Amino acid sequence: MITIRRASTLGTAHDGGVTFRCHFDFADWRSAGHAHEGRLRAVNQATLPPGATCRLGPETSMDIATWVAQGDVAVQVDHFPHEHIQTGGLHLISTGSGCSDLQWKTTDAAAAVFQFWFMADTQGDFPFQSVRAPCPAMDDGSFRILASGFAEDDPEQTEMVRDGSPVPLSSCARLLQATLRAGEGAAYQTDMARDLYLVVASGVMRIGNDVLMAGDAAAIEEENILTVIAQENGIVLLVDVAR
After folding, report:
1. What is the pTM assigned to this prediction?
2. Of 10, 33, 61, 225, which residue is the least packed, with the fewest Cβ within 10 Å?
3. Could you give the strand order of the β-sheet that contains 53-56, starting from the edge strand earlier in sequence?
């Protein structure tokens, strides 16, 4: 079953000094039937103006993955080293037993980000931070794993993933990206018992008979194969989570 979520139907939440477009309940926005998708707790989109700071916390037992669609974002979480995330890069903070102060800042230009919040599978773990730098050489039209909690996807345990391998999640989930040219397609296979959630970051995509524009999303349940065809050049982000 595929349920399309149009960008015009998303919620608007205000938190941390930023306005988010929300796919699921978040901060001061609530919507019946859109609390979460399996173990995916939140999907938020935001454009941060120049010099803006988004400040959240405290948070526990959440993996927060921030993918930068455009611009540069500086990230500071508690005692962890400052990180600078460029377009196409990913920052992950696994809040574990607790992070009190989480900040995302822009410099002299605006930045657009997508955030994915995953419920952790275990409680009380020590928090950790990881970064995946942009890897344009891997944008070949197939789905590439940005972050994963599957053992078979586990990269070497380093804070900076330099070779395009995924950052580690503390939940049994995946976050993937596909960069597609018009006329190209990408397929992903999973288990029927898992949930998929796809967001069109840019371009125009087709799933079956449905055409999705930038900002649109699709919730996919009880399907084991997903195929996306690009009608215009663009990028899609895909989440695979336990139900």
Report:
1. 0.94
2. 33
3. 53-56, 102-105, 73-77, 83-85
| Residue 225 or 162, more confident | 225
Enter the tokens of residue 80.
């962890």
Residue 22, SS3? strand
What distance in Å separates the CA atoms of residue 163 and residue 156, rounded to the nearest whole number? Answer: 10
Give me the sign of the Cα torsion angle 87, 36, 58, 21: positive
| 164, 135 contact by CB (below 8 A) | yes
222's torsion region: left (phi>0), alpha (psi -120 to 50) or beta?
left
More confident residue, 205 or 29: 205
- Nearest-CA neighbor of 238 among 147, 107, 164, 155? 147
Q: Which amino acid is at 190?
A: T
Are 174 and 167 in contact by the 8 Å Cβ rule? The answer is no
Mean pLDDT value of segment 180-201:
96
Q: Residue 232 corresponds to which amino acid? A: E
DSSP H helical ranges for the chain: none
Residues composing the chain: 243
CA angle (194, 94, 21) in 5-degree steps: 70
Cα angle vertex 174, ends 64, 55, to 5°? Answer: 10
Identify any residues that bridge with 22 across adjacent strands, giving them in sequence order.
11, 44
Amino acid at the residue 118 = F
Residue type, 199: V
What are the structure tokens assigned to 221, written together? 């349940």
